[in-house]
Write a structure and sequence with these properties.
It is built from 8 helices and 8 strands. By secondary structure, the protein is of the alpha/beta class. Strands 1, 2, 3, 4, 5, 6, 7 and 8 form an 8-stranded mixed sheet that branches. Helix 5 packs across helix 8.
């Protein structure tokens, strides 16, 4: 279990912008549980969708690639169901890399690599599943189309892309409502008003959400045609996309 952060403001030491540093890494998994609605349910669904799809489509010996794998939590969960696949985690934060490698140490079929997905090529092309869980929202918009095309090219036929993002509502009134309910949830989970405000300010320009329709258009332009939504809670959404 990660350290409970309670009312400690982990962003107070940051000068201007949010950083995935050692202090954030230490409490990262527990922070997400308190910050994202139905977070554990979303993680569970991803594991089950990948397990079902890999088995059904005979993709057992394919690669499973997690982009921005952070502490390796999703790889850890899925690998418990599918032990014949090879897992690769791409991560560019040094503290996250260290934590993921520590968590998954000794697992012969898992490799955690230092990769910047906006600059580096994807070395693994034989992918039955690729994951982007709350990752693309931190990538500048001008790079997202290129990243999605690399994802498309790296998937095998019938491979799936699981894509989870924070979004902006297509309608301003709904978007404002979802945002308020989201902050209410964080307050219920123990975050102070000051923490919520400070984190929001630090994330401005770092986490850049777009609308659901914008994401769908990006996916279509990358070549995907089989697009569906497997999970949504307030201003968070999960897509399942098949090649």
């Amino acid at each position: 279990m990660t350290e409970k952060i309670k009312d400690k403001n982990i962003s107070e030491h940051m000068t201007d912008k949010w950083e995935f540093d050692a202090q954030v890494t230490k409490v990262f998994d527990e922070m997400l549980e308190r910050s994202i609605p139905s977070y554990n349910r979303m993680r569970y669904l991803i594991s089950q969708i990948v397990r079902y799809h890999i088995n059904k489509n005979n993709l057992t010996h394919n690669n499973i690639l997690d982009l921005g794998c952070s502490t390796g939590e999703q790889i850890d969960q899925i690998s418990k169901y599918l032990n014949l696949n090879h897992y690769i985690g791409y991560e560019c934060s040094a503290p996250m890399l260290k934590e993921a490698r520590k968590k998954l140490r000794g697992r012969y079929n898992i490799a955690i690599q230092n990769k910047d997905i906006t600059k580096d090529e994807f070395e693994y092309k034989n992918c039955g599943a690729i994951l982007s869980i709350l990752t693309l929202q931190f990538i500048p918009i001008e790079y997202r189309q290129e990243v999605l095309k690399k994802i498309y090219d790296s998937l095998n036929k019938n491979g799936i892309f699981i894509f989870v993002e924070k979004i902006i509502g297509d309608n301003y009134n709904y978007s404002e409502l979802y945002e308020q309910l989201y902050y209410d949830m964080k307050s219920i989970n123990g975050y102070s008003v000051e923490e919520i405000r400070d984190k929001r300010m630090k994330l401005e320009g770092v986490l850049v959400p777009v609308t659901n329709q914008f994401n769908i258009e990006l996916l279509k332009q990358a070549g995907f045609t089989k697009i569906d939504i497997f999970w949504k809670d307030l201003n968070f959404i999960g897509y399942i996309v098949m090649k």
